[in-house]
Design goal:
By secondary structure, this protein is mainly α. It folds into two domains: about 5-400, Na+/H+ antiporter like fold (Up-down Bundle), CATH 1.20.1530; about 425-555, NAD(P)-binding Rossmann-like Domain (Rossmann fold, 3-Layer(aba) Sandwich), CATH 3.40.50.720. Helix content is about 70%, strand content about 5%. It has 23 helices and six strands. It has helices at about 5-25, 30-45, 55-75, 80-110, 115-125, 130-140, 145-175, 180-225, 230-250, 255-265, 270-275, 280-295, 300-305, 305-330, 335-345, 350-360, 365-400, 435-445, 455-465, 480, 500-510, 525-535, 540-555; strands at about 425-430, 450-455, 470, 490-495, 515-520, 540. Helix 19 (about 455-465) links the parallel strand 2 and strand 3 (about 470). Helix 4 (about 80-110) runs antiparallel to helix 5 (about 115-125). Bound molecules: adenosine monophosphate. Adenosine monophosphate binds near residues 429, 432 and 435.
Length: about 575
């Protein structure tokens, strides 16, 4: 298939192969990521048959990373970033240093030149944004303390990479030149560092001062046009435009640019909600990211240097994790947080390839070392979901064994909750626009209430003023629901919008209490049937109630025409 349409061929080939291999992997109970990577190997130049365009695949993958970081930025506020900086900055710095030194040690043992060992070590030290964010989003950890630390850590690594990418050519020159020119090279190096820092600082300042005002203003203006299409286009244009501008004008990475664009948009709740509508695109591109990595993989390296690949994997999976674990613990965080950060970072990906590519073109890294890095990256990406499964198991086991230790309770995590001692209470799930109003009525009626809500910020006032017992967590999780003491509850009110989660909550509650009064919220007729089928006593169809109230309100007008 020698195509006149390489872009289309790559998108179609990548997505179709990823779907086929992803589905097979899922069937075999393997992580779907393994399927995507294998799809890449099949589409790559090292296996016979169809070969996709590697350059285009890489650019598509970059788009995925941009959209992913934009999405994370939407959920992050400047305040969140500041809150984790005390641990993320030293944490990432120490961990990157340890990983680089371990890589250099391996290089030294293999008799590699110092520069090669350094670039190799540096490439081992940076985690992949995509792998980390996917894992964190899948587990809904983005709004937890450990999720925020991991993202803060990622941002610091990202900044370090920006620096590394501009410094590498300079270091190459420095290491390549003779002793006599060191002074001059050192001066050059200092200049490059200062210039890079200056550009990054300028970009961040511009975003915080101008972007913060301009971006919501533009969105507001576009929203007034009344065109939904134009609005979505505006969101995408801003996300991609800022990312591109950051990369080309300020030498800041695409990822950082997109993250800041998202963060500025997320400053207003309104634009945050609206911008989220544009995100489904990113999942497709994130899949292409894994395909593009698979394409780079040369299976031959597993036969020619298996031990070096293994050593590199051990550094990534154990060396880096151990360093992260020690640092997070040293900052007094619970073991669970330390383990989550360690596992999140026990992989490498796109940044390592970029570094390796640059290293090869600068003559600092041999092609063999690059292939070793790629193989180790793929192994680490494949092993990562397994580490997360082990972590989840460990968390579950320790939650079952442990009487909750005060130190181990991070306020915003799903921690082992003691079962509530309330009786005759109403359990209210969701404390958003709907749940909050239900709560007011319940409180006025004098009934004790227990609220379950995933978003800690939403229930903070409730926790501070008292007035209700609060469980922060996802009620769709059996462990969380169990803490609500349904056995003695008078009713359960499910006020969450997602029909699948609401269904799961209703199903578990009904299984525990066949006689419980369960009232649930729905937004479509299918959803009403779904929830009733799973055991809800009554389902309130939001739009129908709204219609009724609108009609009644219109009838109440003094000048209203008589009904009928
Ligand atoms: P709203 O649509 O404004 O009523 O908001 C719904 C609220 O329910 C939000 O505050 C969500 O954080 C919360 N929520 C959504 N799903 C769950 C869940 N599975 N468990 C607990 N709270 C949830």
């Amino acid at each position: 298939m020698h195509d006149a349409t390489p872009l289309i061929a790559t998108i179609v080939g990548g997505l179709v192969l990823a779907f086929i291999f992803g589905a097979i992997a899922h069937r075999l109970r393997l992580p779907v990521l393994a399927g995507y990577l294998l799809a890449g190997v099949v589409a790559g130049p090292f296996t016979p048959g169809y070969v996709a365009n590697a350059g285009i695949a890489q650019e598509l993958a970059d788009l995925g990373v941009i959209l992913l970081m934009f999405g994370v930025g939407l959920h992050f506020s400047v305040k969140d970033l500041m809150a984790v900086k005390a641990i993320s900055i030293p944490g990432a710095a120490v961990q990157m240093t340890v990983a680089t030194l371990l890589g250099m040690g391996l290089g030294w043992a293999l008799g590699w030149p110092l520069a090669q060992g350094f670039v190799f070590g540096l490439a081992l030290s940076v985690a992949s944004t995509v792998v980390l964010l996917r894992a964190i989003e899948e587990r809904r950890l983005l709004d937890t303390d450990r999720g925020r630390i991991a993202v803060g850590w990622l941002i610091v690594e990202d900044l370090a990479m920006v620096l590394a990418l501009v410094l590498l050519p300079a270091i190459g020159g420095f290491l390549g030149t003779g002793q006599a020119q060191h002074d001059q090279s050192l001066g050059e190096l200092a200049k490059v560092v200062a210039f890079t820092f200056g550009k990054v600082a300028l970009f961040i300042a511009l975003m915080l001062v101008v972007g913060k005002r301009m971006i919501p203003w533009v969105l507001q203006a576009v929203a007034q046009s009344g065109s939904r299409e134009l609005f979505r286009l505006a969101v995408l244009a801003i996300a991609l435009g800022v990312a591109f501008g950051a990369a080309h004008l300020f030498d800041v990475s695409f990822e950082l640019g997109a993250f800041f664009a998202g963060m500025m948009m997320g400053e207003s709740k309104l634009s945050q909600q609206a911008a989220e509508e544009t995100l489904p695109l990113r999942d497709a591109f994130a899949v292409l990211f894994f395909v593009s990595i698979g394409m780079l993989f040369n299976p031959g390296i597993l036969l020619s240097s298996p031990w070096i690949v293994l050593a590199a994997c051990l550094i990534i999976i154990f060396g880096k994790s151990a360093a992260a674990f020690v640092i997070v613990r040293a900052f007094g965080r619970p073991i669970k947080t330390a383990l989550t950060i360690s596992v999140s970072l026990a992989q490498i990906g796109e940044f390592s390839f970029i570094l390796a590519g640059l290293g090869v073109t600068q003559g600092l890294l041999s092609e063999e070392a690059r292939d070793i890095l790629l193989a180790a990256a793929i192994v680490s990406i494949l092993v990562n979901p397994l580490l997360f499964v082990a972590l989840d198991r460990w968390v579950k086991r320790s939650e079952a064994l442990e009487v909750p230790v005060v130190e181990a309770i991070m306020p915003d995590e799903i921690e082992p909750q003691p079962v509530s001692s309330l009786a005759g209470h109403a359990v209210l799930v969701g404390f958003g626009r709907v749940g909050r109003r239900v709560f007011e009525k319940l409180r006025k009626s004098g009934q004790p209430v227990l609220v379950i809500e995933t978003d800690e910020d939403a229930v903070r006032p409730l926790r501070e003023n008292g007035g209700a017992e609060v469980i922060v967590g996802n009620a769709a999780s059996v462990a969380v629901l169990a803490a609500a003491n349904l056995a003695q509850a008078a009713s359960l009110i499910v006020a969450v919008p997602n029909p699948f989660e609401a269904g799961q909550i209703v199903r578990s509650a009904r299984a525990e209490r066949p006689d419980l009064d369960i009232v649930a919220r729905a937004h479509s007729e299918e959803c009403v049937a779904h929830l009733a089928g799973l055991g809800a006593s009554r389902v309130i169809y939001g739009e129908q109630e709204l219609a009724r109230s609108l009609f009644e309100a219109s009838c109440e007008r003094p000048s209203a025409p008589p009904v009928f």
